Each structure stands twice: as C-alpha cells, then as structure tokens.
Amino acid sequence: MSLFDTHIMVDWSGGNDTGAKPRKDAIWICEADQEPVYLRNRVLAEDWLNTRISAAVDAGERLCIGFDFAFGYPDGFCETVTGHKDPLALWAWLEERMKDAPEANSRFDIGAEINQLFDGIGPFWGNGLKRDIEGLPRKGNDRTGRAMPERRHVETLARGAFAVWQLSGAGAVGGQVLTGLPVLSRLRRQFAEHVSVWPFEKLDSSIAFVEIWPSLISAEIAEQATDPIKDAGQVRVIANVVARLDQADKLQTVLDSVPEESRREGWILGVGAEDIFRAAATARPDRLPSNCFALPPGVDWTPVDEALNLLHAAMRPVVAQEDCPIADCGGRVLAEDICAVRSHPPAPNSAVDGYGFHLDEVSGKTVILPLMKGRSAAGVPFDSAVPNGQAVQVLTGAILPDGVNTVALQEDTVVSGNHITIQGPIKPGANTRDAGEDVRAGEVVLSKGRRMNGCDVGLLSAVGCDFAKVFGRLRIRVISTGDELRSPGEVAADHQVYDANGPMLARMAKNWGYEVSTVRVGDDRTAMRQVFTEAANETDAILTSGGASSGAEDHVSALLAEEGHISSWRVALKPGRPLALGQWQGVPIFGLPGNPVAAFVCAALFARPALSVMAGGAWLEPQGFWVPSGFAKRKKDGRREYLRARIAEDGRAEVFASEGSGRISGLSWATGLVELPHEGITVEPGDLVRFIPFASFDQ
What's the CA dihedral at 652, 657, 658, 663 to 10 degrees? Predict the structure, then answer.
C-alpha cells in the first residue's frame, strides 16, 4: 500500500524575486502527474505550500513533499550553534534570525554571525554583496580553522554534490539552505501534529518533508524532461519517480536506506538506493496498486453507479509518454495541453474571391473605384499598399494588402477597363477574416487526456505544431478461456462452441484505439498460469471472458485468488452480474462473464472507461437520449437492466425478442441498448426510455 496519496517536489532558490516571466534559477513546484508551477519568490512559494498543506489536512490527504536543499549540516554543527543536538533546533534558530523579503534576505549576515561562533574563520564563505561583511570571506580558500567537515556524510557519497557552506557563486547551495529551513520551520510549527521530517523523525504523520537532489538521476532527467526550463523538468521527473516508487511499495525501502549515524545530519532521498531510484526513473509508469480493486468492507451487491465510481477512483495512467509527429497523432491520447505555435489565420485574409479596398462606414450606394494592377492570391501576396479610394483584386485565402479592410464579392462587382463598380450595400470588414480569428498564438487548442482524431490533427497542423507529447498506446491481451471453445475454421463437436467473445472483445478494444492481441486457453491451471504470465510481461491490461464466477470450473477466479489478486464484484445489473477485477504480476485483469451479451455489456460499461484512464484519457460516460418506448415491460426493483434495442421507423425503441444473455444475434440485430433504472418500473408503449447507441461505446 502506498505511503502517500500525493507527491510534491520543490526546486528552491535562495535568490531574489525572479519576475513575472517563468525562468530558470527560480522556485518550481510540481505534483506527480501535474504541470510544474512557477513561483517568483519565497513568499509566494511559502503561501502556495501553506495553502496546499491546509487543503491536504482538511481532506485527510497524505503528502510527501521533497525539497532540493540540505535539511542539516555536518554532525556537531547544530550543537555548536544552538547548544542542542536536535537538528530541528537549528531550524527554529534560523527562523528567529532570518530576515527575508522578495528583493533581499539576510543569509550573508547570518553566515557571518555563525562563523563567529567557531574558532578561526568558521565554515561559511561566499559574500555575494558589494559591502564587506566581517567574518564572511568571499572565497572558500580564505577560510582558516573552519572547524567543521566540508561535507555531510551523504554528500561524500553523492558524487557532484556541493558543500553546504558556500553562499554565493556557481554551486552555492548554502544560500538555499539558510533561506529554506526557516520556511520549513514555520510550516512544521503551523501544522505541528501533521508534519514529520525525514530522517530526523518517524514518518507517522500525514505530511512528510524529505530532502531530494535531482542530480542523483541527472541522466534520466536529461532524457525524459522536455520542459524548456530545466528546473521545471527536474521537479516534474522527480515527482513522478517518487510517486512510482511509492505506488510500487518501494519507497519505504528507499527511506530505510539511511545509516543510523547520519540521521542527525540529514540524508538525500535515494542515496544508498540509487539502483531502485534509477530503475523507477527509467521504467514505464507503474501499473495499478495491488489493492486498487478492493471493495470497501461490507459491500455486497453493488449498484452500477456505485461500482463505476469505485472503479473510476482506482484508475490512473499506466503507459509512458513520448513525442509523436503530428501526422501520426490520430488515435493517440495527449499527455499535456497543446498551445498554438502561431495564430490561425496568421494574418488578415479574404474569405472570398473579389476586390479589396478600404471602407470606413456602411455604404448602400454603388461605388466606382480605380482598379490597381496585380492581385493578392493565397501564397502570393500583393507587394504594395492599396491607397485609400482604390481597389485591388483579392482571391480567397489571400493576405489582405495594407490599406484593405473590406472585400466585395466578385459577383457584386463589374470591371470596366481600369475601374471597378461595386454594388452596395456593403459594410466595413465584409468578407474578411481577422488574424487569430480562429485561434490565437499561445492559446490552448487541445487539452491533456484527449484522444485525437483526424480533425484534431488538422487543427494542430494549422497552428504550427509539429510534435505532441502523447501517451503510449495501451496494449491489451484478450484471453478466451474454456475447454469447449473452438476457433472459426476448426471442427467443432456438438459439445463445443465457436469462440464469439474473443473476436468481439478484440474488435471492441481495437475500436477504442489500443494494440490488441488474442489467445485462447483451456480449463487447465498450468496453461492458464503461463498465458497470464506471458500477458503480464507483454501487455498493460488483460480482458478475459468466462471463468469469472465462483463455480468449480471458474479457473480464472480461482487462479487469481491463489496466486494473484482478485476482487469479485457482484454488480446489480442484468446481464453480467459476475465481474472479476484483479491483477496478475501487477497487470490489471478484467474478468468478464462468459455469456456474450453479458461480456459485451460489462466491457462497454466497465472496461471501456477504465482502460481509457489507464491509457491517459478521460473517464468515458456513454451518451444516451430519451425516446418513446415501442415495447411494454414490468421490471422488478434491485438491479439495472440493459436491453438490446434499435430505433424503429416510427422513432420508437424496439427491443430484441429475448433477454437471454447467450443470444448473441440480438447484439448484431440491435443498434444500441435501452437502459432501465435500478428501481422497479413499469414501461408502457410511448413512455420515454433512455437509449444508448452503440456509437456511444465507440462501436
């Protein structure tokens, strides 16, 4: 089980306010699976953290917050400065003394003050101010008798880590420490009973502060971070890596890898467990937690809406992100918002073939204007301005020449020699398009989570986008189970049936945009175990049909219960009550009923929206509409029902003659489903019923 619900990483800065425009060497904060947030100074950053922690406390949310500055100093420093061995006493000491504003802070004076507590010069150096500060040398080699080790033990292991004593210049992490610890001290004091600081305290509170160092996985960050500003990319990657570690139940191992003798100095998360950390950075996004399908205690028969809500809450993306050329983006799911590179149209242009001129007010008169030689065509603009009182030929899509704000339709004009007669009425701006009338540069044109179609590809091309960050295609394995199954073309005895579910479910998953493979396996535990293991190694999710209930021959459920994870969902719907949701070696399995109609309904209602989220998309709600009933039915209370139906010529919904879930011909006959509510009702001809077309399920 994950230790935390949310993982937030902070790239700190000890410098002054960096301005409104996002830039490097500023403060960046990122939650896992979210966009980095730019904060121009420490006051705004502290307010952001305060608000976020308050919201988490109110909601009972568990937060892991990482900061990229040292939480402590070499052993003995805290006791020399404060008289106490508790490293958190130094936090309070610094909080009392640090004066910090967006444009200036007192870190250099505090460094000098601390230096005076040591024999000799003391450990701090790097005066970044124009004025000299007694006791704070400008260069590190000016120190004598600094009395402290140059680095903490963890920094001797983290190759490339800078010492905490440097307060200015390249690699001056000391300023981040002196400005960062007072902020953490205030947050810790305000949320005292909710905050634990690692590794100084046991993580038994809902909010954890941990120390991070992005350079620990600098190679992986360089490969994965596509953000134009490096600091933003670092916190994005680190947040996602820590979240993956936690979701894979490996974060505790990383937290435990701290030598006991170094706990008073502080420790960088991941040092001592670099292999685990780097593996998480290079691995595809973690699969779903092993307990994701667990039902709350006491849940028995679950109404459809409640079951869907529970399933929705358990889902998250499980596929990696990649850059994709726009031309190949059809069917792919966007991993981030896309903004227009350029406006569309990029310049004012003509909507028709005609003649352009300048018009100040509505004219209902016939106007005769001199006609200039030449024309403006799409891709070949007119190369000079059009003086007021003259006109020029303009073709559809052509940029309007300077001086033109109106275009008269060619059909409304008469050309005679070098003059043109324009028949009114006409108003200023007629038949023109403004620059950016459709889309302005910088606007979000498509949002994260959208599965792109051909029209989206055209839009992105029009606004100058060449690549988009998308989620990888979800890979699905459809497994048909049962000794009785045969494939088309094989000889089938009377006690055998041709596999309908496998081809049907595979086609459904392909229509949803996924890579699909199929396999058939008999009622043999050994063979089924091998098939499941191969699927877990090669795909992101598994759909099975048959064997999902609890009978003697329901081997899917039995095998998952013995060697995997399973939660048998008894959903109050008809058809399709047994629904086995589980995992095999971390890969989600949707165990669908064996009857074809029940398999179709459960796949459409449950697997489709869940797989969409796993693929990085939105949770999908089928769209239905109300139509008059062309049938009569009395329905009992206690479960939702779905009837195979189609719209008759008179606009009424007619239903298939049989409700048997083995009658697959009814699915081919129908064009949709009539949904009847959980409650008992009586439907008479003419009553309104909800009809969900198969197109709402991408069928």
Answer: -100
Q: Is 105 exposed, middle or buried (0-12, 13-18, 19+ CB in 10 A)?
A: buried
Strand partners, 566: 582
DSSP letters for 64-121 = EEEESS-S--STTHHHHHHS-S-HHHHHHHHHHH--EETTEE-HHHHHHHHHTTSSSS
Query: How many residues are there in the chain?
Result: 699
What's the mean pLDDT in 638-647?
A: 96
Other C-beta atoms closer than 10 Å to the C-beta of 524 total 13
Cis peptide before 36 (omega within 30 of 0): no
Q: What is the pLDDT of residues 277-309, one digit of tens each?
A: 888 877 666 567 777 888 777 777 889 999 999
Contact of 567 with 573, CB cutoff 8 Å: no
DSSP 391: E
CB 523 within 8 A of CB 553: yes
* Contact indicator for 45, 69 with CB cutoff of 8 Å: no
Q: Phi-psi region for residue 33, left (φ > 0), alpha (ψ -120 to 50) or beta?
A: left
Let me know: does 496 contact 486? Beta carbons within 8 Å: yes
Nearest to 285 by CA among 254, 326, 239: 239
Which pair of structure tokens corresponds to residue 214?
């992005």
Structure tokens at 126: 């790097």
Phi-psi region of 358 (alpha: psi -120 to 50; beta: other; left: phi over 0): beta
Contact in structure between 391 and 372 (CB atoms under 8 Å): yes
CA 328, CA 183: separation in Å to the nearest integer? 47
pLDDT at 399: 96
Torsion of the alpha carbons at 346, 350, 356 and 358, rounded to the nearest 10: -60
Instruction: Report the C-alpha gap between 107 and 121 in whole angstroms.
Output: 17
Question: 182-185 contacts: CB < 8 A, separation 24 or more?
Answer: 182/91, 182/94, 182/95, 182/98, 182/100, 183/42, 183/45, 183/46, 183/49, 184/67, 184/71, 184/91, 184/209, 185/88, 185/91, 185/92, 185/94, 185/95
Tokens found for residue 36: 């980095």
What is the identity of the amino acid at 136?
L
Question: What's the rounded Cα separation, in Å, for the pair 581 and 577?
Answer: 12
Count CB-CB contacts under 10 A for residue 373.
7
* d(C-alpha 448, C-alpha 510), whole Å: 22
Take residue 346 and report the two structure tokens written for it: 């990029």
* 70-79, 540-549, 587-596, 658-667, range with the lowest pLDDT: 540-549
* Closest C-alpha to 565, from 580, 548, 544: 580
Give me the half-sphere count of Cα atoms (radius 13 Å) on the Cβ side of residue 514.
31
Which pLDDT value is given to residue 554? 65
Best CA proximity match to 308, nearest among 678, 689, 679: 678
- Going by their DSSP bridges, the two strands 419-422 and 413-416 should be labelled as antiparallel
- Rounded distance between C-alpha atoms, residue 194 and residue 189, angstroms: 10
pLDDT in tens, 372-385: 999 999 999 999 99
This prediction's pTM? 0.64
- What is the pairing mode between strands 301-302 and 565-571? parallel
Give the residue from 598, 603, 589 showing the smallest Cα distance to 559: 589
Nearest one of 568, 582, 624, 575 to 602, comparing CA atoms: 575
Q: What does the alpha-carbon distance between residue 134 and residue 112 come to, in Å, rounded to a whole number? A: 7
Q: How far apart are CA 381 and CA 401, in angstroms?
A: 7
Instruction: Locate 420 and state its tokens.
Output: 């043109």
